[in-house]
Amino acid sequence: MTQPTDIRGEHLRTARSLAASGVPVLPLRAGKVPFGNCPHCADNACSGRPNMKTPGLCTCPNPCHGWAAASTDPGVINSTNWARAWREAAGVAYHPGGAGLTVVDLDNAEAIAWARACLPATRIVPTTRGEHWLYQGAMQSANAVRPGVDIKSTMAYARWLGHGAGAMAVLPDVVRALVVKEPSTVRPVPQAITVPARATGGECRHRTPTYLDRGIAMAEQRITAAREAVHTTVYRTFLAVLSTHGRCGCLTDAHIARLFTAAQTKGESARHCTDAWTNARTRLG
Fold this sequence. Notes:
By secondary structure, this protein is α+β, with helices and mostly antiparallel strands. Helices cover 34% and strands 14% of the residues.
């Protein structure tokens, strides 16, 4: 089927070519921001958070934001839903992890000097301010792993700036190690839990270690077992823990640290953990 002329263009041709080679793509608007690809999310109304087909902040029937919208399906890329986006697109983005790739995003000269000294040579794509170093293999994404360095792979998108030059190396352990967080870096929210206490008589049942420890262990397991919608799972787990164990003052910083550690192991940042915890506390009044 011949596509209408108004969705033909350089960005669309690039997207089709990448998709044909197995690279999931999506259109980018000005400012390197993804389009909200459904009417409910126009102009980033849902803050750009994908729901991955599970209930969450966005109630769209299908993933329509950022990396979750990236596709190799010609039916999606050439669809009328994406026609306006391609007409207005300022660029093409791709989901590195979906293509089995990792991008080490070097944002300045100092970061590039570090990479040349510490990382194996690989394919390099020049960017506006620095370079993208591409490796074969996917991993957890993370921002600011060191000054001027971001890791873009799973659950992230990168702007397509060309094929680059050089042979692509296998993802080295030195890059994987950049996102490993030591348990000691986990910082629970500093303020005390202020959820109103229940008016119950007698000794608090949480004083029995088995009851509280079992609850925390179950919460850790729920977070660790999440295979998608990690943001939503973490928030709902925090909400459940606070609802059950947070009203009497027996929940300690050590318990919170265990939950934060489980969440960070799944790729959540300390800021996301703090936000989820604060939002759960607010939800409970």
